Amino acid sequence: MKLSKKKRILIINRGEIASRIAKAVRELEHIAVGVWTDNEINAPHLQFCHEWLKLEGSNNAETYLNISQILNLVKKEKIDAVHPGYGFLAENAEFAEELEKIGTIFIGPNPTAIRMMGDKAISKKKALESKVPVVPGSVGAVDDLEEAFRVSEEVGYPILLKAVAGGGGKGMRACFNKEDVEKNFDVVQRESLAAFGNKDLLVEKLILNPRHIEIQVLGDKKGNLYHFFERECSIQRRHQKIVEEAPSPFIGEDEKLREKICETAIRLAKEVNYDSAGTVEFIMGEDKSFYFLEMNTRIQVEHPVTEEITGIDLIVCMIQSALEEDLGIPNQEWIRRSGHAIECRICAEDPVTMLPAPGKLTGFDTCFPQGTRFDNCLYPGLVVTPDFDPMVGKLIVEGINRDVAMRKMRAALEGLLIEGLKTNVPLLKVILRNEAFSKGNYSTNFIEKEKPQNQIDKDINIQDIFKKLAIIEARKIGL
Questions:
Q1: CA dist 219 to 27, 61, 265, Å?
Q2: Tens-place pLDDT, residues 140-153
Q3: Selected catalytic residue, list 173, 258, 298, 345
Q4: What is the CATH number of domain 211-464?
Q5: Which of 2, 131, 303, 385 is the most buried (most CB within 10 A)?
Q6: Based on C-alpha coordinates, what's the Rg of the chain?
Q7: Catalytic status, residue 298
């Protein structure tokens, strides 16, 4: 395979995804350029970068979201390409366009695709145009409360009030009658405006006991589009995922359903000329009917489970696509899956309330089963502040089947020792031993129904804690 000329690739992100991208850049023999701020001068991703640049500022708005500062840095340092990771500017069409204007490659989809799929009203219209099933509801934003009442009556209660520009579980309220709509309409508008700068809302039918199924897609600049099967992301709190797996235990051995939903995702991606890594998300009812939810025009947090079952490095492919290189994928049939993978998001949050718990990491150690992958940004002295997402790591395991993968994950969670930070590990341990989860019999209301947070062992074994802390301290001094 012919190597392209070395490119200086700026990674405009932090944490585990910045490390992940830097490793892919190095593998492709390009130059990884990392960024740091005064808030994180010892950021672990910098050890995987060839060069380091400083972002001036004390918060996200002044650093990772500061388009003008980043563009000035790109021009001054003669950067060839920029990878945004996820979050921050990853789905910002304006940023992609500005890079294009100065001749710098944006490692992601074309700005038109970002803009179309980033707006839930437009993406829903595109889905309808490409004959992709959508949840019954308003085709575009509802203008006022009266229109919300009318659409709600047409589709039938319960319904979901949902921000047009939403994401991450913000700007959403379930309504079971007209009174709920009246009570929540202004509330959701205000929340949407504060979070996304856009108060427009959609009204959608609320699917009860749904599954959250998403399809990983990848396109190149030559018009080729591939899917990498599905991921199950139904274990969520506050509409945010905490456990993901591939393949979906709900789809199971139903290969006709798997093929149908994957082909549907490809059809939508082709409709918008998609040309990078992306995810088409669906909501699936108890009868296995499925509806388009949204498309994330970036790499997803949970992409590792797809990599584990297909053996394909999605970040590498994403970079190759942006540089107009051959992906080395001859056809769709060449992409195969094997085994089962599970990912647990490790978050600095209270395991009972599931709310962020900022703090300082004083130490950590691992004792994992064979084959465990731990993408993380942990280091002694790390301060998790309210300014950043509380996710500090992703624990990923792969087994020959789902039972083996669950067994490995239970062992991996037991072998993750964290000192100083409160994390959701106790909650994840309960979930992995839950009977409904073990049988694959769960939906997005798992937390509400099973209440795993109430099953966390409150009778803490102090002796066991001191043993674990002793191990960490011994490792610190090289014993």
A1: 20, 31, 12
A2: 899 999 999 999 99
A3: 298
A4: 3.30.470.20
A5: 303
A6: 22
A7: yes
